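Researcher: Go.
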Amino acid sequence: MKRYALVWCSEVASLDYRDHIVREFSQGSEHWDVLTPADPDLIEKALDYDGFIISGSEKSVIDDAGTAFVSRLLDFLRAVEARTSTPVFGICFGAQALAVALGGEVGRNPDRRFRLGVETLDWTPDALRMPELAVNSACTVVQSHGECVTRLPSGSTLLAGSTTIPHEVFLIGDRFFAVQGHPEIDGKLLQEYFMPIHRPLFDEEAWQQVLQESHLPVHRESLVALARRLLDEGRL
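Model: Structure:
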């Protein structure tokens, strides 16, 4: 039986949401554990699993870079890269952590505003030329971020961008898969999990736009399928 771990990076989000992530990417026949960057022994667990998911977080790889929590996570990802052939899927903050750990850069969103809503992704020619990715369908994804990847690590392949940020979906090599958005949830869960947390960041006019977007269709199936395949096969 394969063993996977969700590296849970939030100290605010609900445990129901944490468990939802595991259910969303599980295929039913594997064992899952939950790890945390708060664990001083996290790095030693880099060799223990067949795949990892790095969750989103209220933390920042910029503002919290000097904390033990973030620095330990980055060291863990570098250990996975250097000492294993294990695949890693990064979601939102997890995608940013992957980028920084492996040589990329993260900065504020281009418009300096927190992005909360539903975004349409534009697949790149590289993605469309890779038939094994099967990404020829439209894709929309929930977004919740104030920062984004501004420079990809060496050896990366950009798979999708959007009108909001250039680096929405990317591969580093063939076993580190990163999505800036949240393919694990739909509009209903955006309303339930994220909107109550981030309401203070928006004035009434901007909040009405968030509310409107939260009712848009979310077509995230291709991203979920890619993440599941990465974990199952070890690479994309």
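Model: The mean pLDDT is 95.
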